[in-house]
Amino acid sequence: MDAIILQILNGLDKGSAYALIALGLTLIFGTLGVVNFAHGALFMLGAFCAVTLSRILSLSHVVIDESRKDFLGNPMKVEVPYLHEWFGPEVGATIIDWSVPLSILFAIPVMILIGVIMERGLIKHFYKRPHADQILVTFGLAIVLQEIIKYYYGANPIPTPAPEAFAGSFDFGVLIGFDANSIIYPYWRLVYFGFAMVLVAAVFSFLQFTTFGMVVRAGMADRETVGLLGINIDKRFTIMFGIAAAVAGLAGVMYTPINPPNYHMGMDFLVLSFVVVVVGGMGSLGGAVAAGFLLGVLESLASMGWVIDLVPGINQIIIYLVAIVILLTRPRGLMGRKGVMEE
After folding, report:
1. Nearest in space to 6 (alpha carbons), one of 145, 170, 155
2. What counts of helices (H) and strands (E) characterise the chain?
3. Dihedral sign, CA of 181, 185, 190, 193?
């Protein structure tokens, strides 16, 4: 039982990434009708926002430290971060230590800007084109973006640690009545799950309870009628593309301590996220989130040793098997609107 609970926890944090990426994908498909194969690249760009801010905060210069001597007795040259001089060693070290959470503030405007530029500069020209054309052009854009990241940051993963306060693990088993040391789980993975819940709630609240969100939902249901009312729905949809990009970017920012960023991480999540969208139901925001967590947990449970011994390789294909079964029995997905993908 403790092994199952541990795998469920692993599945929830993996499902959190699936759900957030799929949520952004569904926002774009639901508002603009665009199949955006560059969405995984937005997840990657968010992760590298965290890497970039970490490097900026760690910028330093060389000073002579009279209190330290080399083997010849000469004062040593040491690297001192600028933040240590500006705010003092303790405050400066704390800011650098918390670079990943602080990257949220950095990534939001950057990712919204990237999303708006993508939509206005490229995506808008493919609204009325077949989905095959949209897939080809956005997939090509994803490859371009990852090669740019590879050129400037290199091909190797870049470790980006969580704040020291969340660097360890805690005994989750004791919390739910199990023996000590039976279920040890990293703090940051729980932080990521909690962050995903807050972000999902924020997106749904924005769409449900704000005037802007209500107009967007109306536009998703009947774009032409909303336009006839004199509302510039295209402008609002452009903003929603930026918001969807920010959601994917923030998912990447907070995932960096779990999986060190590399230039192909977006592609690693892209296909799985599209499977999540299709299983949840094309255009269904709730379906995308529910399917993300469901498939994340199933994938994690299928990775248990006894399951792999029973069905070798099942952990690699379980998500696709579930997708096949659901689409054969319910083509519109778990929570898709009736008629969608059922023609």
Report:
1. 170
2. 15, 4
3. negative
The whole-angstrom separation of Cα 252 and Cα 257 is 10
Report the CATH number that the domain containing residue 160 is assigned in CATH: 1.10.3470
Q: What is the DSSP letter of 178?
A: P
With a threshold of 0.85, does the pTM exceed it? yes
On whether residue 76 sits in a domain, the answer given is no
Per-residue pLDDT reduced to its tens digit, 114-148 = 999 998 888 888 887 888 888 889 989 999 999 99
- How many structural domains is the chain composed of? 1
Domain of residue 217 covers 2-54+98-329
Query: DSSP code of 162?
Result: P
Helix (H) or strand (E) holding 314: helix 314-329
Kindly state whether residue 80 falls inside one of the protein's structural domains.
no
pLDDT in tens, 292-330: 898 888 888 888 887 888 888 888 888 888 888 888 888
CB 7 within 8 A of CB 304: yes
Distances (CA, A) of 202 to 177, 189, 199, 277, 286: 32, 20, 5, 19, 13
